[in-house]
Amino acid sequence: MILPAMNWLGLINPEKFLLFTLVLVRTSGLVVTAPIFGTREVPAQVRVLLALALAMLIAPTQMHRSVPEPNTTPMYLVLVGSELLVGMCLGLAIVILLTGLHLAGEMIGYTSGMMLADLYDPSFDNQTPLFSRLMFLVGTAVFVCIGGHRAVVGALLDTFAAIPPGTVGLPQSLPETMVLLVVQSFALAVRAAMPVVASLLLTSLVLGLIGRTVPQLNVLLLGFGFNSLVALGVLSLTIGAAAWALQDYAEPALEMIQEALLS
Length: 263
What we know:
With 263 residues, the protein is mainly α. The protein has helices spanning 14-33, 44-58, 73-112, 130-145, 148-162, 174-213, 219-262, and strands at 118-121, 126-129. Strand 1 (118-121) and strand 2 (126-129) form a beta hairpin. The radius of gyration is 24 Å and the shape is elongated.
């Protein structure tokens, strides 16, 4: 027996097929941008299958809605663009915060003088300091541990209740919310990098005093190794605090973008 909600023969109807494509576009926007789902390490085939799976699960719950039929191609593109932006905004809210940890790693790398130890980061498609890659991976792990991937999917389901498929336009408060998320990302970067940066500044001050007191010492040669040692030591002690700070910011950020979309 086939349940009515799962009767996919209804998709033959052009209106229902249009509805399914709009749901698929919204789920694709989330899969493309959200952490874990949209990273470059995940093969494109897996992301496509995930977007299709989410759309096939969500579409039957939306089949009772009516979508205005677009009379022209530009109107259809407007509908697709609106759905894509809704899905992308949910993923970008968390990506912006994780970028704050990435920035914290760059600050640590510049201050410690270890920017030479760069590697290729497929997530950002450029050369990335080791500290930035480490902080980004730690942030991603914390995001999974606190159930952020489930919260993002739950927020996506809530958007279908507040913003039905086929709705044109986005809430006016959304740009302001994105700006606030960028501000929080910078605040997270400062909180995560401050212990290491402050320790390195204090180390530079001590080395400067030693250089004045004992001019025979090669402070430049000594300082590079000493700064690296201090950076690694302090980071190993404070990386847990950075992960805790991300947890404090992640849940309010997701709630903030969700409220902006649902308002």
